[in-house]
Amino acid sequence: MVNTKIVAIAIAIIAILGIAYYMLAGFQKPSPQTPTPYPSQSQTPTHSPTPSPTPTTQVPGIPQASKYIVIAYRDPQPIDREQLVPYSNINPGFLRDPVMDVLIKAGRITTDAEIRRIIYNAIQKLSNDRLSLIWLAQAREVRVYWNWIKNIYFHPTFVYRVDDLYKESYAPNPNKLVIGESEEGHSLDPAVTYWGFDWFIIHQIYERLVAYERDNVEYVSPSLAVAWAHNEESDEWYFVIRGDVVFYDPWENRTIPLTPNDVVYSFRRVATMHLDPSWLIEEFINVDETTVLSEEEFRTILANGLYTEFKGASKKVSSLEELLSFFGYSGNVAGFVKVKLNFPYAPILSVLATIPASIVSTEVVEAHGGVRPGEENPYLYDHPVGTGPYYLVEWAHRQYYRLKANPYYWKGRPAIEEIELRLVPEDSTRIMMLKKGDIDIALVPPSLVDQVRDVTLDSNKLIVDVAPSFWIYHVTLNCERHPFNNTLFRKALAWAIPYDIIISTAFNGLADQAYGVIPRGMFGFQDDEVTRYTYNEDVARKLLKESGIDPKSVSITIIVPQGYSEQEQIATILQSSWSKALGIDVKVQVLSRPVFNEKLMSGDFDVQVLAWGPDYVDPDDYAGPLQAGGYTFADVTLHVITSASDISKYVDTSDITVVTYRDIAIVISKAK
């Protein structure tokens, strides 16, 4: 039998453990002596019984270990090149890596906390060694705003939602929030964009079934769903859809009622379009078996018993009234949806809080082009129609966005009635506007943050908040191209980077060196079995020589997106250090966001500098997008044993890959 509290506890623990670091004032490595509680499920994939440690029999090619995690796979298939989507089924460096894919899949399907931690420890180790991306720094988050803005907060996944804030009555334009940003967005379609700035705007317009309340990170709260429950296996989830909610269509000045069909349509749309963020839906949700239920159908299912959790409490429920009472809801209901998962996945509610899970209007999409496989919808690009607290009034490209309060919002009108996001590419101009009070809150690069400290305007002052974050800056190397397809050459580049100068210059000291794909403070992080790269010309030149590549034959172009000071500074430092240490020709090219994005997603680049932040707080959200190896498998299973002689029961030992972490060995091979 399954522990009926598994999902609630697992989600809470994933959030709490993953965010523990975020809540601290500084960077701290989790103590390896502190065990991580995480309940396991007696379901597929099953783990073989783990007896007390006994002496192991040495097997050729397999080291002695206290425990063996055997990962068996069947029918590995490389994904066709035209089907590869960076940050989805292939890492942005396009490095093919079936071993990494097996580990990522294993991390997703196991529900044993300790096994999952070890798998991500191993992924961290491999990401540090294989270097499709060179890990630079984990940056702190800097936010600069006038003290007349109240209720502002930090959240590791979403910046903030404006309807949570208000301005003092004495503030300039007290009903309007003016935000200074640097970049032009890519799209306002939640099924298309994977850029943080776009997500901030979409977060104000669209809503999802569940949401985080302000800076809470321990659990999600009801949003368009007022209650939820799941079966005993945790692979079928049921959502009660909030009644009396409408989409506001400002383009045709009309309202459209939210229905359960919109929920199913939205998930299927993301999967069908199969664009940048689609993995967040496709990997976990079986959209074909996700359906609308009638009230009679849902009551019949409930009568057999379902399990629900909220705010740390859990309960088995057998009636709709009991379920709604558990969530404290007594309003109208629009209907019911069953979401079928591909496999039980503890953080699924956190996934459903991400932007790609936003609910769109079926009527609006179908009236304006519908859904076409692999294609964007031109209308939804800049005509968002959501149920959220704001709606888009105007997007003046490369100038500003204007949003106004949704008069039909189900929570009521927010205190701030208008939002203006001004696009000011020049840092100096943006900072000057902020100091004058023309902007309420602005993007200020860490390298320039000292310019806005101790700034006052009449009796008001600028607030400079610095908080820990999970943002990791990295260099992406195009491993489909020569010479980046040479591992030794990639390592030579890594040893020719002055990480300390990057941290002191680009981040003004507000960052720490990163050593792998899992950020410090997140479940699965380790830095005790990684290479600590530093600037070392001797090591870099030795590796370059061993790679067999003539530096005089190499010419590298580093691309960075316009409006990102940190990336531009990093690229300039790399240009200097790689040229000096390795004698290669390096150029830097600053591109507009649309051009940069096209090159990034198509693989038309040598090197690029970018950063990654969490969609949801789990190591899978880093390992998957940043390390996926471009393979699929018919099946992946896990077996935990203590005797090496038992490995051959599960896999072919003639061709194995072994990854060790401390005294544990992960053995990967084809299933018998």
From TrEMBL:
Coiled coil region boundaries: none
Database matches in CDD domains: PBP2_NikA_DppA_OppA_like_7
Pfam families, sorted: SBP_bac_5
Gene3D superfamilies noted in UniProt: Dipeptide-binding Protein, Domain 3, Periplasmic binding protein-like II
SUPFAM superfamilies: Periplasmic binding protein-like II (SSF53850)
GO molecular function, one term: peptide transmembrane transporter activity
Main location: other
GO biological process terms on file: peptide transport
Record localization: Cell envelope
Keyword annotations: Membrane, Signal, Transmembrane, Transmembrane helix, Transport
Annotated spans, Disordered: 32-59
Residues that span the membrane, as ranges: 6-24
InterPro entries: SBP_5, SBP_5_dom
Domain Solute-binding protein family residues, every copy: 220-628
Family listed: Belongs to the bacterial solute-binding protein 5 family.
Protein name (Swiss-Prot/TrEMBL): Solute-binding protein family 5 domain-containing protein
